[in-house]
Amino acid sequence: MNGGQLRSALAVVGLSIQEGIRKRVFLAVLVLTAGFLALFALGAHFAFRDVDEFAAGVPGVLDAHAFTGATIFGLAMFATLFLGAVLAVFLTLGVVRGDAESGLLQPIVVRPIGRTTMLVARFAGAALLSAAYVVLVYLAACAITEVTGDWSPDHLLGPALGLALAVAIIAALSLLASTILSVTAQGIVVFMVFGAGLTAGLMAQIGTAIDSDSLHQIGRVASWSLPFEGLYAASLHALISNTSGLTGVVLQLGPFGGSEAAGTGLIAWAFLYLLGVLALAAFLFSRRDL
Amino acid sequence: MAGPVLAVRELSKRYGKQEALAGVDLEVEAGQLVGLLGPNGAGKSTLTKIACGLVRPSGGGVEVLGRPAGSPEARAALGYLAELFRFPGWCTADELLRLHQRLVGSVGGEAERRELLDLVELSDAAGKRVEAMSKGMQQRLGVAQALVGSPRLLLLDEPTSALDPVGRRIVRELLEELRRRDVAVLLNSHLLSEVELICDHVAIIAGGRLVMAGTPAELAGPAAVEVETAGGVKTFEGATREDAPRIVAELVAAGERVYRVEVRHSSLEDVYLDAVGGQTG
Q1: HEC readout, chain A
Q2: If you ran DSSP here, which 8-state letter would residue B71 be given?
Q3: Structure pTM?
Q4: Half-sphere exposure of residue A193: CA atoms within 13 angstroms, side-chain side
Q5: Which of A45, A156, B78, B231 has the fewest CB atoms in 10 Å of its CB?
């Protein structure tokens, strides 16, 4: 990439970010996020208070406080991923076919930027914004559990980066869908893929809980086919990876069941997958008459 | 002598079984304003889009300043306004031009943006959001956007379709100014009167083929000589200016009193209708 293309690419990244921020939908996302965090803070406050009252004076090997913190934070992680996925899809909605049909794309594509550079720049803008969003919401949720219940995850940074990479993959998949599908179809297909990934993760949890190798295997294959789910599961795992004893065992039966450490294999695969999806999107875009 | 700014050679394009262009040749020289006419679906927009690199040709080729259409060098040399275009509604006129300056690598800065908005008479709308502009204002902004970076070739697809008469005059004067600056312009339009008024050269496409080309004067050839005599108006179809003295002499010799002689030319509209054979898209 020469200097001119880099300058053009940065201009398109800036356009994507500005476009995302200055649309009213982004404001709606921010309002909904504030609502979610407020409700989460309220829920966390009462959950910790009630559990502490319930467990007070009851000797046991289960750390009810840690169990509560991990469980509600796991649910917050799911909400964060979901909201991040919504944002990633919204920021990439109609980026190729939709914008080409409305005439928004042509004035930019005729400039000497190159289609691949333009596509990657659009992805970078959407991925940066979505990733920043999930990291901020994640950190806000961390702060809430810390303040309301004096509980924090075993690992702070790893899960945040896992979520950020997961939404970047969703943004790439959405961009790929935008090269061949209309706006409505793109939104439906990407959310179906997102749902399929989470369902596969759920199957893996059930497989772990009932000790079914087949279900567990299906979940693993799906996690690798749609690595955002694998990254999400790994992020969940990192929240409680140092929690041992009965508390750790009981947590594995809940929303954390089936989660595994990311490992370099999954992370490397996630990056390769991302590059592969972008390469396919760029190929399809390069063949398209506008 | 330098070659043409735009050279279209044996250009063909098929969409499935449909033939949009079938071996079209066309050239646009520096400082030349070429009008591309034809019914809807004739292939005008396809030709323009191939020249911009938006559509891949099925055969033949297009060169911009000797470089293949769609190459970075070719795209850096042209400005384009599509027939159906849209700009982000949230950005202002000034922001849009700034974006295109960055995309094209223009170093013109604020002075260029101000000059372009002046040219299309949108100086007062620099801070206005696109979504708050009328369609006509957006079209004039589109013309300004196409001129960012001082392109050597301007491809305009129906640039005046949403403009009122004042807006059309602004664009017409702008095109004349561009001709003075040696910019080559290919203008797709349905407005025959406009093309006749400003274009140096006209090309008519029908059914994906170039059916007629020439200067407006060449195309609008003499149609008849009309003579008003005491016995009424006599029309001599097919006669030219050169035939007029002979016709008058013959009428006078025959005892007619001649009051008026007029050499009638066919209009571009007549020529166009003859060329496209009444086709409409």
Answers
A1: CCHHHHHHHHHHHHHHHHHHHHCHHHHHHHHHHHHHHHHHHHHHHHHHHHHHHHHCCCCCCCCHHHHHHHHHHHHHHHHHHHHHHHHHHHHHCCCCHHHHHHCCCHHHHCCCCCHHHHHHHHHHHHHHHHHHHHHHHHHHHHHHHHHHHCCCCCCCHHHHHHHHHHHHHHHHHHHHHHHHCCHHHHHHHHHHHHHHHHHHHHHHHHHHHCCCHHHHHHHHHHHHHCHHHHHHHHHHHHHHCCCCHHHHHHHHHCCCCCCCCCHHHHHHHHHHHHHHHHHHHHHHHHCCCC
A2: S
A3: 0.82
A4: 22
A5: B231
Among residues A237, A218, A220, A228, which one has the least CA distance to residue A81? A228
pLDDT digits (tens, 9 = 90+) for A11-21: 888 888 888 88
Contact A106/B78, CB-based, under 8 Å? no
pLDDT recorded at residue B157: 92
Could A110 and B76 be called an inter-chain contact, meaning their C-beta atoms sit closer than 8 Å?
Answer: no
pLDDT of residue A218: 81
Burial of A79 (0-12, 13-18, 19+ CB in 10 A): middle
- Complex ipTM tops 0.90: no
Picking from A10, A106, A112, the nearest residue to B54 by CB comes out as A106
Do residues A169 and A227 touch, judged by C-beta distance below 8 A?
yes
DSSP for residue B280: -
What residues of chain A lie within 8 A of the CB of B103, using their CB?
8, 11-12, 108, 111-113
- Which is it for strands B6-15 and B258-265: parallel, antiparallel or unpaired? unpaired
Helix (H) / strand (E) element for B128: namely none
* Residue spans of alpha helices (H) in chain B: 44-52, 72-76, 93-104, 109-119, 135-146, 165-180, 192-198, 216-219, 244-253, 268-276
Residue A123: phi and psi, rounded to 5, are -60, -45
For residues B47 and B15, the answer to whether their CB atoms sit within 8 Å is no
Q: Is A41 in CB contact (< 8 Å) with chain B?
A: no
